[in-house]
Amino acid sequence: MEPSKKKLNQFTLANNCPECYAQDAMILTFYQKRVKNSIYEKVSKQTGHSILCQKCKQTIYPVKWTEDIERVYNFYLKTLTPEPSLKLTKLGLFLIIFIVLLIAGLLIFWPQQAVNLQ
Ligand SMILES: [Zn+2]
């Protein structure tokens, strides 16, 4: 299991950076959490976010947000439509087919065996 982030959308904020006061330098990135293992790749509907200032290269954490940043964040948050997804890997697909065939095989052969035992 290795969680990673799938970029959902990115916006440049016109607000001033609370660290270096640069304008048009902050990039707000929304992402969805992605969990990938050998059987499937799952993208969660839940979103996360981060704000990075390109001028001072600092991550602007919510504690540092001004009311304006919060307002803009809430505005952009409403524009998002995160789509959850679940994708099987080749191994996952192979396992599913294998299990289905195994169950089908059992259903076909089980009644015959039961008859033979009597
Ligand atoms: Zn800055």
What would you note in describing this structure?
This protein has 118 residues and is an alpha+beta fold. It has one domain. Helix content is 35%, strand content 35%. Strands 1-2-3-4 form a four-stranded antiparallel beta sheet. The protein is rod-shaped. The mean pLDDT is 92. It binds zinc ion. Zinc ion binds at residues 17, 19-20, 22, 25, 53, 55-56, 58. Keywords: Membrane, Transmembrane, Transmembrane helix.
Question: What order do the helices and strands come in, and which of them pair?
Answer:
Blueprint: E1 2-13, E2 26-36, E3 40-53, H1 67-79, E4 85-88, H2 90-117
Antiparallel strand pairs: 1-2, 2-3, 3-4
Zinc ion binds at residues 17, 19-20, 22, 25, 53, 55-56, 58.
Keywords: Membrane, Transmembrane, Transmembrane helix
Protein name: CpXC domain-containing protein
Organism: Zhouia spongiae
